[in-house]
Amino acid sequence: MIERLAGAIEELLISPHGEAIAEARRLADHLEAKIAEAEVAYAAAGGPAVEGYADLAGFARHRCGATLTDSRRVARRAKRLRMWPCLAEAWREGRVSGTHVELLCAIVPDRHVERFMGAMPGLIDTIAALSARHAGQHLRRTVERADAFAEREAVEAGREPPITPPPARELSASRSLDDALFLSGHVTGDDAAHVEKALVAATRPDRPGERRTPKERRADALVEVCRRYLETIDNPDAKRSTERLTICADVVTLYRAWLRGAGVRTADELEDFLAERPRLGELDRGLFLDAFDHTSHTARTLDGNPVTDALVAAVAAGGAMELLLTAAGRILHLGRSTRTFSAAQRRAVLARDGGCRSPGCHAGPERCDIHHVRPWDDGGATDITNAVAKCRHCHLDHHRRALRDQLEPDGTYTVTAPDGTHRTTHPPGWNQHPAPIVVPTTSRPAPEAILGAPTFGHRCGCPCDRHPDPHERARIDHARHLTLRRVRLLKLELERGA
User: Fold this and answer.
1) In sequence order, which ranges of 112-188 are alpha helices (DSSP H)?
2) Buried b / exposed e across 116-146, counting CB within 10 Å, b at 16+?
3) Any idea what DSSP says for residue 462?
4) What number of CA atoms fall less than 13 Å from residue 412's CA on the CB side?
């Protein structure tokens, strides 16, 4: 059946007209209803646990490539549809759309799921004729009436009425696929006054030639408030959660950020930059040359979100944030001197793993413990090479089920169940194959266009330019290029000094 569906999709050609697109959307919604029905049955039968996943959300993330938000939405929808089979049937028959189903699953709180079971058929008929906006408004009013009825019901039964006040403040912050942070929420009363006053105080006037909208000014003010707060933190390691912003950057990335912050873009500018700093040692000079000649990795936060070179340079210059340097992903060791991982080791492991490393679980770093791969009681060391991040649930489950695990030097983590089943995960950014050699599409590749070769913009004129294999040329002559340039820069420095 799935093969037939795949073949039909491959042969499908949708006409670029409104009617055709609307009909295709309707069919896609019908297919989504079928998939949701299968997910309900799969979760009810314990399928995720049998295949080694914590829950349906973990399955959706690991096997289906869903984001954290989408995976939680899928799991919540499956729970609701299992309790409301008439809603699943109405969706499958096309009496309600997937949008209406998502509204019901999102707006009806857990405390009223059973209460809505009897009223669901009538509620389906009501919202089916409404637009998404009006359906949402109707559902929110229905939930408010359910809260009032539950309170009256408890009083009549002689029980203490449930306290379900509307939230005075809430804020959601989620990353989009392009790494933008979207904020949504509200605050009321005195809290609103504090937030408003802080945003007004942090708002700066437009610079000459700058024209910002009021929304842009408030966004800039919020960033400034957060930056100033980070500067006031004195003890970022007092709690398990990391309060101060930690930036993870390779050493070469740090030096590249330094060059970019100084405006160095060409070979001549690099020569002037080094000549102005005669006290730099050979190691620093070599790292600057390496940073100029190579494409280094992007600096990221502990959560794995990218940051700019400007922020890396500011942190390295003594900012309020913390900079965690790495070299090929290898960081810290403590041996058997202590059983508990230090705060620095915890940050190092989270920087490498990005969150829980249990197969199928994608809990964020703020929810993770640090787990000894080889147990401490069996002689395991408190080292980075013997540590992985695990959320509290997966950590306890690991010891409860007596799982065996192994950590490779490159961060590859393998978990073996008692029945011999193996599951392997890799840290973010892991790549089994080296970076490819990139050559131009001309008949004769230029050495400066090869990734990993020198990029100063000229050829050395030696026979390596005529080497038939660009891969071999890059490997043979890279060290020679660096050595010649370092000698040239030192000679230039001596001449200027004289």
Assistant:
1) 115-128, 132-156
2) beeebeebbeebeeeeeeebbebbeebbeeb
3) S
4) 9
pLDDT score, position 460? 40
Query: In degrees to the nearest 10, what's the CA dihedral of 270, 272, 278, 281?
Result: 10
**pLDDT of res. 36:** 94
For residues 56 and 74, the answer to whether their CB atoms sit within 8 Å is yes
Q: What is the DSSP letter of 383?
A: B
> In which element (H, E) is residue 100 found?
helix 98-107
Q: In terms of pLDDT, which residue wins out, 331 or 168?
A: 168
Strand, coil or helix: what is 187? strand
Task: Note the residue count of the chain.
Answer: 498
Q: Which of 103-117, 170-184, 226-240, 319-333 has the highest mean pLDDT?
A: 103-117
Task: Give phi and psi for 321, each to the nearest 5.
Answer: -90, 175
**Taking the CB of residue 322, how many other CB atoms lie within 10 A of it?**
18
DSSP state of 379: T
Interval 147-161: pLDDT, tens: 888 888 888 888 887
Q: Give per-residue pLDDT as tens, 217-247.
A: 999 999 889 888 877 765 444 444 444 566 6
End-to-end CA distance of the chain: 82
Phi, psi of 432 (to 5 degrees): -70, -30
Q: Residue 48's closest CA among 451, 360, 403?
A: 360
CB 65 within 8 A of CB 73: no
The whole-number pLDDT of residue 93 equals: 92
Sorting pLDDT into bands at 50, 70 and 90, what band is 484? low
Select from 244, 234, 388, 260 the least CA-distant residue to 323: 244
Alpha-helical (H) ranges within 330-466 are 343-353, 392-400
Whether 327 contacts 262, CB under 8 Å: no
Q: Mean pLDDT check: name the lowest of 170-184, 371-385, 398-412, 450-464.
A: 450-464
* Domain positions in the chain: 20-156, 169-231, 246-326, 343-425, 447-497
- At the topology level, CATH places domain 343-425 in DNA Binding (I), subunit A (1.10.30)
